[in-house]
Amino acid sequence: MLPKWHILLGGLFTAIIWFFAPETSPIYLTLIFLSSFLIDFDHYLNSFIKNKKLSLPHALKYYEELNKEDERNYKRGIKKKRNFEIFHTIEFHILIAILGFLWIAFFYIFIGMVFHSLLDLAWLLYKDRFYRREYFLFSWLREKS
Ligand SMILES: [Zn+2]
């Protein structure tokens, strides 16, 4: 899912939480909103690692090309996993949830991340691209070793 949709839907989600729980601190609402799209920072890191370029437009172009390649592969029946996205793994979500017990701010970050990941999952399922992502850090580490 494109970052613009994550930002838009993250804003909407945060507004809904604010509506139903108006006593929630603006700082915590901001954390929910920011984490609902900044989790995609791992995509940017991947682009930087692969291309050694810090430019955000370059990273967006890189993903545009990856999407085109993905589309071609899909049409030929090739189902390939894409880059490993560490912030999107189950383990990373669990880590943030555990940190939420130690510091409440992480709990709100966790809420934003889960919302983001549910949107990603819905999008991947809708586009029939569920295979594209590695969901487990430990599976990725096992494959690497
Ligand atoms: Zn994402």
Structure description:
The structure is a single chain. This protein has 145 residues and is mainly α. It has one domain (3-144). The protein contains 7 helices and no strands. It starts with a helix and ends with a helix. Zinc ion (ZN) is lined by residues 39-40, 88, 116, 120.
* Total strand segments: 0
Small molecules in complex: zinc ion
Overall pLDDT score: 95
Rounded to the nearest angstrom, the radius of gyration is: 16 Å
Percentage of β-strand residues? under 5%
Give the proportion of residues in helices. over 70%
- Major sheet characteristics: none
Order of helices and strands: HHHHHHH
- What structural category do the secondary elements indicate? mainly alpha
- Low-confidence stretches at least 5 residues in length (pLDDT < 50)? none
Counting structural domains, the number is: 1
Shape: globular
Q: What distance separates the N and C termini?
A: 30 Å
Oligomer: single chain
Per DSSP, the total helix count is 7
Element layout with pairings:
Layout: H1 3-20, H2 26-38, H3 41-51, H4 56-75, H5 90-102, H6 104-126, H7 137-144
Bound molecules: zinc ion (ZN).
List keywords for this structure.
145 residues, mainly alpha, 7 helices, globular, binds zinc ion
Short description:
This protein has 145 residues and is mostly helical. The chain is built from 7 helices and no strands.
